[in-house]
Amino acid sequence: MFILRTSNMRVISRGASTNSLRLVMPRVQVVQRTHLVRLNSTEIKPNPRPVRKEKELNPQRDWDAKVIKYDDLKPKTESPAPNSWLIDVREPDEVMQGMIPSAVNIPLTILPESLNASPATFREKFGFEKPGKDQEVTFYCRSGMRSSSASDIAKRNGYINILNYKGSWLDWVEREGTAKA
Q1: A Pfam family in this protein (predicted)?
Q2: Dihedral angle at the C-alpha atoms of 162, 119, 153, 62, nearest 10 degrees?
């Protein structure tokens, strides 16, 4: 298949006795369709988007909370300290499968507003005291993804003593042999 490209034709003169037109045909370029070539595009232009550093690509992951392992978490669940919190960030329907002993539930979907709530509003909503910004706060979820996000949310809300149980509920159940994942 061929494409015929032309520019507009120009009228050079008009015959006086006849209404004939003398036309000058413009230059015609025939290009085979399978080998279309862009004309007037021989310049190589730099990519307008600069290459971004990995840190800029994911600004929410500019730090990682300290990871706590099962062996370190287990004793904390058996005798919890009054100044430390184990927070399950799963949704209530997931919590029905079971929870790690001594944990409290604050779903990730409402965690930012909960951490910004006044202590009185927090206590009214959840039935326990709001963790202090300098108290130890450990997050877990089902598999470790949401607990990483929760750790990041807590950090951005001024909490400084944050732990992330990345093994989360699946690891706990496997090691404890209780409940169903």
Answers
A1: Rhodanese
A2: -60
Closest CA to 87 of 162, 158, 145, 174: 162
Sheet holding 136-140, edge to edge: 66-67, 162-164, 136-140, 84-88, 104-105
Crossing angle for the helix pair 70-78 and 168-176, to the nearest 10 degrees: 80
Q: Report whether pLDDT(10) > 70.
A: no
Q: How buried is 172 (Cβ within 10 angstroms: 0-12 exposed, 13-18 middle, 19+ buried)?
A: buried
3-state secondary structure of 115: helix
* Residue 65 near residue 164 (C-beta atoms within 8 A): yes
The type of residue at 110 is I
Q: Closest by alpha carbon to 132, among 84, 60, 179?
A: 84
* Residue burial 32-71, b: 16+ Cβ < 10 Å; e: rest: eeeeeeeeeeeeeeeeeeeeeeeeeeeeeeeeebeebeee
Cβ–Cβ < 8 Å for 12, 23: yes
Enumerate the active-site residues. 141
Give pLDDT tens digits for 37-69: 444 444 445 555 555 444 444 444 556 889 999
What's residue 37's pLDDT? 46
Digit-coded pLDDT (tens) for 132-151: 999 999 999 999 999 999 99
Q: What Cα–Cα distance (Å) separates residue 119 from each residue in 127, 130, 131, 144?
A: 11, 6, 9, 27
